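Task: sequence design from structure.
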């Protein structure tokens, strides 16, 4: 038996399984939990980081694919759209895989699976390969998008509610940064006169290293179980779909622009692959680095408030992009696009922080307190994250298809940016109407416990 003031050491069984995990217990967290959680966070980020790189691999490869490959701009946008689509869809099963196999075990498997699209791309990447073959191999790269969902679900279980904004922001930001890293690697290879197979050859051993390190240093949590009832409850809850919409506006923008930025510069402003590569990494890099700050600001001021004003800023940046596109101003266009990347990263952190807070509020509104309320919040927020992450990633599909149609219809991306601006307005209105109006549901202060006083209304999620 463990007394109330002690921190039980989590016993393990074979395969690095932790049987006891109570991060909400401050003594346990300080003496045992924090060190273990941070270790798992680090190696989860490493695997997710490489997963993002492989997922967005084709945003780089299409820059290498000149006229000799026989692909039109519309073909390339279609290719990146389908890669994004697969990455979004596989997020749902990846979310539940953590509870089936264990966070450590699934990280090993999911990292190893990245070898399949990487080796396949290495094999077919040459002029004369058919578009259908490129499309099929590109679809395989979509598995890299699933690593985000399993990693977020796993890390969500390791950290206490008061630390989730920071932890999830750092986890996602470290993963997101895989996008600019592979773009920087491509820039170095292009500059050195290398080709796409050199880039692929660099990543194959890195994938193996990530899988081995996960096996050596990560843990499984035995108390993380799949709850089909929770999945059904999350799917029936309106907040899951509202947050999915808002996450389309942030993460959908980030991943969609990551795939499309270089192609827009090439097709609209006539940039060469090297000229495009010099700037395409900047936006994803800054957007990834700022994501933990979005989570930190949400921890302090409330995710809904940060998200609301972030959508305002995203709308303004998009309006500047429309003007720069019409005026054919490359410098203004590039600067505004980078700003939009930064804002999408900030919003990624603030919107994802809202999810556990929303379901914790629902627990308090039901009269639940203490660990019972925390368990309810973890149950529904964990189940909803996979759905929200998947739907949010579908925004990347919409962005690439919108650019494809805009270039086919108008010869530029201006029409697509007008549609994006309208969508950010919708996100602003929904955030305000659902989470920030004074009529939003509140938990009476007289009945709330001290540990829940920071979560008294949806305005504070």
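Answer:
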């Amino acid at each position: 038996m463990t007394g109330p003031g002690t921190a039980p050491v989590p016993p393990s069984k074979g395969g690095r399984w932790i049987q006891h995990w109570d991060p909400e217990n401050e003594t346990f967290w300080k003496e045992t939990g924090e060190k273990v959680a941070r270790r798992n966070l680090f190696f989860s980020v490493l695997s997710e980081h490489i997963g993002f790189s492989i997922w967005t691999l084709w945003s780089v490869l299409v820059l290498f694919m000149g006229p000799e490959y026989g692909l039109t701009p519309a073909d390339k946008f279609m290719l990146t759209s389908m890669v994004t689509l697969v990455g979004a869809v596989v997020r749902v099963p990846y979310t539940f895989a953590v509870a089936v196999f264990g966070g450590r075990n699934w990280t090993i498997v999911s990292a190893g699976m990245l070898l399949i699209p990487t080796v396949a791309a290495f094999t077919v990447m040459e002029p004369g390969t058919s578009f259908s073959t490129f499309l099929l191999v590109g679809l395989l790269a979509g598995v890299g998008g699933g690593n985000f969902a399993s990693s977020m679900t796993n890390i969500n279980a390791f950290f206490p509610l008061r630390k989730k904004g920071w932890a999830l922001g750092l986890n996602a930001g470290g993963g997101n940064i895989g996008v600019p890293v592979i773009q920087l690697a491509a820039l170095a290879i292009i500059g050195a006169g290398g080709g796409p197979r050199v880039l692929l050859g660099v990543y194959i051993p890195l994938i193996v290293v990530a899988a081995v390190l996960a096996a050596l240093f990560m843990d499984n949590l035995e108390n993380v179980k799949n709850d089909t009832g929770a999945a059904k409850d999350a799917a029936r809850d309106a907040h899951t779909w509202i947050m999915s919409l808002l996450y389309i506006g942030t993460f959908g923008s980030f991943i969609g622009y990551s795939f499309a930025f270089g192609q827009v510069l090439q097709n609209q402003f006539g940039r060469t692959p090297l000229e495009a590569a010099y700037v395409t990494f900047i936006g994803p890099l800054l957007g990834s680095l700022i994501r933990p700050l979005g989570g930190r600001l949400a921890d302090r001021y409330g995710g809904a408030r940060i998200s609301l004003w972030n959508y305002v800023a995203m709308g303004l940046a998009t309006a500047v992009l429309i003007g720069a596109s019409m005026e054919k101003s490359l410098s203004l266009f590039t600067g505004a696009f980078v700003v939009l990347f930064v804002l999408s990263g900030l919003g990624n952190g603030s919107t994802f922080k809202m999810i556990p807070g929303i379901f914790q509020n629902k627990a308090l509104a039901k009269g639940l307190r203490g660990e019972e309320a925390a368990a309810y919040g973890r149950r529904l927020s964990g189940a909803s994250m996979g759905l929200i992450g998947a739907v949010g990633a579908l925004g990347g599909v919409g962005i690439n298809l919108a650019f494809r149609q805009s270039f086919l219809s108008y010869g530029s991306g201006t029409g697509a940016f007008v549609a994006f601006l309208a969508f950010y307005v919708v996100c602003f209105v929904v955030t305000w109407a659902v989470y920030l109006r004074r009529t939003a549901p509140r938990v009476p202060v007289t009945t709330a416990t001290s540990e829940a006083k920071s979560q008294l209304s949806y305005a504070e999620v």
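Strands lie at 12-13, 17-18, 220-221.
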